[in-house]
Design a protein that fits this description.
The strands form 4 sheets. Strands 2-3-12-11-8-13 form a 6-stranded antiparallel barrel. The chain has a 3-stranded antiparallel β-sheet with strand order 4-5-6. It is mainly beta. It has 2 domains: 163 residues, Elongation Factor Tu (Ef-tu), domain 3, CATH 2.40.30; 47 residues, no CATH class. The longest helix is centred in the middle third of the chain and has 7 residues. The protein is extended. Keywords: Ribonucleoprotein, Ribosomal protein, RNA-binding, rRNA-binding. This is 50S ribosomal protein L3. One of its GO terms (biological process) is translation.
């Protein structure tokens, strides 16, 4: 990232932002009540493209963060992100679906003040991957009796049909890969924004492991 771009572009406020999960903590409100919060680390994001209905068929603002090394970048991403101030590619390139604010230019830095304490946001992140799981763990099936020789404990149980259609219908709840999927949580409260430390505190837990990228959009 070039120093010139960082110094000359003004911060701008959008309808949301992206941050990285750090872990959980506890803060206290004015009434002395303990509030469980998740600490999110905000890193500088820069506008890399402005999408419009005329050109792209929808309105969005593309933002990029964390420069790549030259050996890990191809010419296409180098050319695409050059105007945003990146010498090479970026590790993270994401979009926020919204109309572009007046006067927005490529290279502008997204402000952490896009969100404020008390805002209610929709939060999206990737949950922890838990590998291959059975139907009891994956779907919450009750299973069978634990004793008395039933021989039916944590199995899926009956899943087929009769002679017609004579097959298992798609979408049945079976054992399979658990986790590692995008999870959206609505009505999440922003507890505090600590701009000096680039920290966002949201109420409650956030899906995913440490350093998971979290999307926050004001509802």
């Amino acid at each position: 990232m070039s120093e010139t771009t960082q110094n000359t572009t003004a911060s701008l406020k959008l309808n949301g932002l992206f941050a990285f999960k750090e872990g959980m903590a506890t803060v206290y409100n004015e009434q002395g009540e303990a509030i469980p919060v998740t600490v999110l680390r905000y890193e500088p994001w820069f506008v890399s493209q402005i999408k419009t209905n005329d050109v792209d068929g929808y309105e969005a603002i593309q933002v990029a963060c964390t420069p790549k090394k030259a050996k890990n970048s191809n010419k296409a991403e180098q050319g695409h992100l050059k105007d945003a101030g990146f010498e090479n590619g970026a590790q993270f390139v994401k979009e926020l679906r919204q109309a572009a604010p007046e006067g927005l230019k490529v290279g502008a830095q997204v402000s952490i003040d896009s969100l404020a304490a008390g805002d209610i946001v929709k939060m999206t992140s990737k949950s922890k991957g838990k590998g291959f799981a059975g139907s009891v763990k994956r779907w919450g099936f009750a299973g069978g009796p634990a004793s008395h020789g039933s021989k039916f404990h944590r199995r899926p149980g009956s899943s087929g049909n009769r002679t017609w259609p004579g097959r298992v219908m798609p979408g049945k709840k079976f054992p399979g890969h658990l986790g590692a999927e995008n999870v959206t949580v609505k009505n999440v409260e922003i507890v505090q924004i600590i701009a000096d430390e680039n920290v966002v505190l949201v109420k409650g837990p956030v899906p995913g492991a440490r350093n998971t990228l979290v999307k926050l959009v004001r509802e």
